Fold this sequence. Notes:
The protein has about 375 residues and is an all-alpha fold. Helix content is about 70%, strand content about 0%.
Amino acid sequence: MATTAPVHFRTTVPAAPRAHKAPRLRDLGPNWYASIMGTAIIANAGAALPYQIPGQRGLCELLWALAAVALAVLLVARAGHWRHHPDRARAHLLDPAVAPFYGCLSMALLAVGAGTLLVGKDLIGPSAAIAVDAVLFTAGTAVGLVMAVVVPYLMVVRHKVEASQASPVWLLPVVSPMVSAAVGPLLVPHLPAGQPREALLLACYAMFGVSLMATLLLLPLVFGRLIVSGPLPLALTPALFLVLGPLGQSTTAVNQLADVAPGAIDASYAHALGAFAVVYGVPVMGFALLWLALAAAMLVRAARQGMGFAMTWWALTFPVGTCVTGAAGLARHTGLDAFAWLAAALFLGLVTAWVLAAGHTLRGLLTGRLLPAAG
């Protein structure tokens, strides 16, 4: 007699949802690079100030080292973000409010690289400083030029934006080449004389033009949005200071380029570039001070209405720092004490803004409010 083997029925149990790996990295956006920029610019601006006080150099070295370590940590964390949360990373690129912040990666690399030559060389030696800056400048410039094309392209073909949504944040990807133009001159004297120096000098002027033309296209949209639609949302109000970035950085660029032009290009051109640094820089610095006053008034208004801390507070640091270096450059080329005083006054404002932004950011990290452990 044949026996039939018992039949076992399996009950299908729904699989438990898989927990995300590295949950704290899920919301780690490219805007975090702004904290690196804001820290590095204090070291760079402090080294450029016409006035130096005891201990100032040491403080600049400390902040450069802090920015360099923070950059390394953030690069690793952002790599983890792309690895464990690729869906979120792609969503950031397709979000018109977040995608422009990809320009901050370039500026963070460039700012730390410039600080390496300006103050970091005292800690790691001149040869190592030149090598590090060369790597960071090359990487930062490449990333900046790519993002200056990719982000506007996405805004045209993928992002759905209206004129009423125009924001100073839109300037971030197109201002990156201007940062390259401002810090590239630091490497010019370390290249062989002749065509290598001239090529880098003129490449920096080309990037100056790329960024300047793009800024002139976007800035009217930003100002028009304010006039037609009124103030920005409270949390976004500090972003108004981002307009100072291309203004201060372009003034810095023309002065830095004029400093190294005599050893890189024909004397007649070098003389003209020195004159251009003043003829361009003074009017632009004047407009920067006008915008600074407007942005500060809007910031006071937002604070009175209950503006709380957000990562946009870092917009109060790097753009102001570029105005410090721009004013310091004009002080060198005009010999006017007024520009030296302006640089010192702006530097005090920069340090104050950094203390506030860094303090709130550290508190937010410790409490988990800024990077919650999402499921």
